[in-house]
UniProtKB/TrEMBL annotation:
<dbReference type="GO" id="GO:0005829">
    <property type="term" value="C:cytosol"/>
</dbReference>
<feature type="binding site">
    <location>
        <position position="519"/>
    </location>
    <ligand>
        <name>ATP</name>
    </ligand>
</feature>
<dbReference type="Pfam" id="PF13193">
    <property type="entry name" value="AMP-binding_C"/>
</dbReference>
<feature type="binding site">
    <location>
        <position position="315"/>
    </location>
    <ligand>
        <name>CoA</name>
    </ligand>
</feature>
<keyword id="KW-0479">Metal-binding</keyword>
<dbReference type="InterPro" id="IPR032387">
    <property type="entry name" value="ACAS_N"/>
</dbReference>
<dbReference type="GO" id="GO:0016208">
    <property type="term" value="F:AMP binding"/>
</dbReference>
<dbReference type="GO" id="GO:0005524">
    <property type="term" value="F:ATP binding"/>
</dbReference>
<dbReference type="InterPro" id="IPR011904">
    <property type="entry name" value="Ac_CoA_lig"/>
</dbReference>
<dbReference type="GO" id="GO:0003987">
    <property type="term" value="F:acetate-CoA ligase activity"/>
</dbReference>
<dbReference type="InterPro" id="IPR020845">
    <property type="entry name" value="AMP-binding_CS"/>
</dbReference>
<protein>
    <recommendedName>
        <fullName>Acetyl-coenzyme A synthetase</fullName>
        <ecNumber>6.2.1.1</ecNumber>
    </recommendedName>
</protein>
<feature type="domain" description="Acetyl-coenzyme A synthetase N-terminal">
    <location>
        <begin position="30"/>
        <end position="83"/>
    </location>
</feature>
<dbReference type="GO" id="GO:0019427">
    <property type="term" value="P:acetyl-CoA biosynthetic process from acetate"/>
</dbReference>
<feature type="binding site">
    <location>
        <position position="541"/>
    </location>
    <ligand>
        <name>Mg(2+)</name>
    </ligand>
</feature>
<feature type="binding site">
    <location>
        <begin position="415"/>
        <end position="420"/>
    </location>
    <ligand>
        <name>ATP</name>
    </ligand>
</feature>
<comment type="function">
    <text>Catalyzes the conversion of acetate into acetyl-CoA (AcCoA), an essential intermediate at the junction of anabolic and catabolic pathways. AcsA undergoes a two-step reaction. In the first half reaction, AcsA combines acetate with ATP to form acetyl-adenylate (AcAMP) intermediate. In the second half reaction, it can then transfer the acetyl group from AcAMP to the sulfhydryl group of CoA, forming the product AcCoA.</text>
</comment>
Length: 655
């Protein structure tokens, strides 16, 4: 970015106070901010006491060798014991932990007592396969209960897991197995996706032919789809039901150091090989447990929590597995896609299980907007009391739609900013405290220190933009990049001395609240102004005909970059709109009116789909390639690479 701060263009005036009933009974009140401000480490030491420690920590933070942090270093605990056994010991064995809903409609209800038996059996099975504390286990599974059981079994025996999203290819899997030096892979014959079984085991077989994966001794295979003709390597492959089912359901958890590695999770980023983000035990569990309790106001006796992420992403790790289960929550685990067999599937699930708290991503909210308001209107969504968003900036209009059409215009929406690297939520409203602003994550949570700085590392005044930085270490921070301490320092701690560089653009509004503006790499430079893609996208989405927009800066001889927008029309507009040229003109005028003439897109192209990563984030890099008439860069992380062919086909040959 140039020296000029990000333009602060978007003005969003709508405000929503917390519902009085929720505020009166909220788990966390405004006092928490005061308490954490007065004694930040004392605050986190208190949160650590949410957990059951075999040895209580006496030291909170060791920051003597920055940026390598140790939290609660002299404490010992077992993470799986905290997520499962202690609830059973507290008499909650009959509470439902997981309401599993398979895509074909099969269901399983798993109580905490059953989860304890399943996790114990799986821990015994991994031990029989020779896995010891410290050995890495790769997990490549669909969204089925065995994924949660496998993660907890690894945690129980101190074997760091490395989940690889089931939609990734054999190559991606091989790279990750190799980098983490995994000894066992847990997979399934397949999973259900869009109404049909989709095989997984062949990708494992192929990955294990690649150099660097020779140390994998065993492949543990869950039978999920019952597909015929699963290729089998004798001596290496073993069925879950053969090995795990015959194990004892008793297993004594051993306590590990708070800094014992819990998992490695790879983030791809735009360049270079994937980074293995390393998380450890005590600090990670403290922050995921606390933030789940605070941000979602969890009442474990009555709430039904549903995080729609895949367990293969950090959101699934922290808010399907470790946060909710450490809090004794009852959750929904859904295997499939939101539109199988119909576009109301999610809302049907909310109605069926009485979901109280839904945590999802802007991409899903915008898809629901596109499909039409009448679809959620057919279901009883009155059980919902809190709605969460994560993964991308949420456009104010999508935020308001979510609250209105899913939340009956009454539920708070919490827009939660965090990253694989931060491990847990960092910036978010608190549902019983914060007066919310559509599109803003607003305030660092109690105990978290974040701000926005300019190129010279100076904190920007209210009303200005720059880079988001975290100014103090936090319990669930990544500890390093697996096997590459130098890359950890270079990537996160070198841009600004002593501060964590998140790679996101952000601004502070007049109240000092934080608005996320997208990845710094995506910021556009137009006639000397840094303009955020997020703000232009939000202006487009505020037009009634637009469900979703992606904006990029394309090289331009006059203005350095020219704003180029790709838009998806809402269901109703799609059918009605006959005159595309007139709509495009209307949209350009609309953006100019909302944000000012500088932000008026030079080109706007209606398209059917946008390129997304498998976790639902828009890949602007590829759209930039299209807008600049270049050959497309790496498309391997796209959900569906045919999307790009469709977009290119829509383009006039010369810009
Ligand atoms: C949890 C997760 C991290 C990146 C992050 C930022 C974007 C996530 C956001 C958000 C604006 C939010 N992001 N939440 N941007 N508002 N509420 O998504 O982790 O996959 O590592 O992505 O996602 O750009 O830097 P991860």
């Amino acid at each position: 970015m140039s020296n000029e701060s990000l333009a602060n263009l978007l003005k969003e005036e709508r405000r929503f106070a917390p519902p009085a009933g929720l505020a009166a009974k909220a788990n966390v009140t405004a006092e928490a901010y005061e308490q954490a401000k007065a004694d930040r480490l004392g605050f986190w030491a208190e949160q650590a006491r949410r957990l059951s420690w075999a040895t209580e920590p006496t030291e909170t933070l060791d920051w003597s060798n920055p940026p390598f942090a140790k939290w609660f270093a002299d404490g010992k605990l077992n993470v799986a014991y905290n997520c499962v056994d202690r609830h059973v010991e507290n008499g909650l064995g009959d509470r439902v932990a997981l309401h599993f809903e398979g895509e074909p409609g099969d269901t399983r209800t798993i109580t905490y007592a059953e989860l304890q038996r399943e996790v114990s059996k799986a821990a015994n099975a991994l031990t029989e396969l020779g896995i010891q504390a410290g050995d890495r286990v790769a997990i490549y599974l669909p969204m089925i209960p065995e994924a949660v059981v496998s993660m907890l079994a690894c945690a129980r025996i101190g074997a760091p897991h490395s989940l690889v999203f089931g939609g990734f290819s054999a190559d991606a899997l091989a790279t990750r197995i190799n980098d983490a030096d995994a000894r066992v892979v847990i997979t399934a014959d397949g999973g259900y996706r869009r109404g049909k079984p989709s095989a997984l085991k062949p990708a494992v077989d192929e990955a294990l032919t690649r150099p660097g994966t020779e140390k994998v001794r065993s492949v543990l295979v869950v039978r999920r789809t019952g597909q015929e003709g699963v290729a089998w390597t004798e001596g290496r492959d073993v069925w879950w039901h053969d090995l795990v089912d015959r194990q004892s359901d008793q297993h004594t958890p051993q306590a590990f150091d708070a800094e014992h590695p819990l998992f490695i999770l790879y983030t791809s980023g735009t360049t270079g090989k994937p980074k293995g983000i390393l998380h450890t035990s005590g600090g990670y569990l403290t922050q995921t447990s606390y933030t789940h309790h605070a941000v979602f106001d969890l009442k474990p006796e009555t709430d039904v929590f549903w995080c729609t992420a895949d367990v293969g992403w950090v959101t699934g790790h922290s808010y399907i597995v470790y946060g909710p289960l450490s809090n004794g929550a009852t959750e929904v685990l859904y295997e499939g896609t939101p539109d199988t067999p119909h576009q109301g599937r999610w809302w049907e699930i909310v109605q069926k299980y009485g979901v109280t708290t839904l945590y999802t991503a802007p991409t899903a909210i915008r898809a629901a907007m596109k499909w039409g308001d009448d679809i959620p209107a057919k279901f009883d969504l009155s059980s919902l009391r809190i709605l969460g968003s994560v993964g991308e900036p949420i456009n104010p209009e999508a935020w308001v739609w979510y609250r209105k059409h899913i939340g009956a215009d009454t539920t708070p929406v919490v827009d939660t900013w965090w990253q694989t690297e931060t491990g847990g939520i960092m910036i978010s409203p608190l549902p019983g405290v914060t007066e919310t602003k559509p599109g803003s994550a607003q305030v660092p949570l109690p105990g978290i220190a974040a701000t926005v700085v300019d190129d010279d590392a100076h904190e920007v005044p209210n009303g200005s933009g720059g880079y988001l930085v975290l100014t103090e270490p936090w319990p669930s921070m990544l500890r390093t990049i697996w096997g590459d301490d130098q890359r950890y320092i270079d990537t996160y701690w070198s841009r600004f001395e002593g501060r964590y560089f998140a790679g996101d653009g952000a601004k502070k509004d007049d109240d000092g609240d934080i608005w996320l503006l997208g990845r710094v790499d995506d910021v556009m430079l137009v006639s000397g102004h840094n303009i955020s893609t997020t703000e232009v996208e939000s202006a487009l989405v505020s037009h009634p005909s637009i469900a979703e927009a992606a904006v990029v800066g394309a090289n331009d001889p006059q203005t350095t970059q020219a704003i180029c927008a790709f838009v998806i029309l809402r269901g109703s507009a799609d059918a009605a709109q006959t005159d595309e040229a007139a709509l495009v003109e209307e949209l350009r005028a609309h953006v100019a009116k909302q944000l000012g003439p500088i932000a008026k897109p030079k080109r706007i192209l209606p398209v059917a789909e946008l390129p997304k990563t498998r976790s639902g984030k828009i890949m602007r890099r590829l759209l930039r390639d299209v807008a600049e008439n270049r050959t497309l860069g790496d498309v391997t992380t796209l959900t569906d690479s045919s999307v790009m062919d469709l977009i290119q086909a829509k383009l006039p040959s010369a810009p």
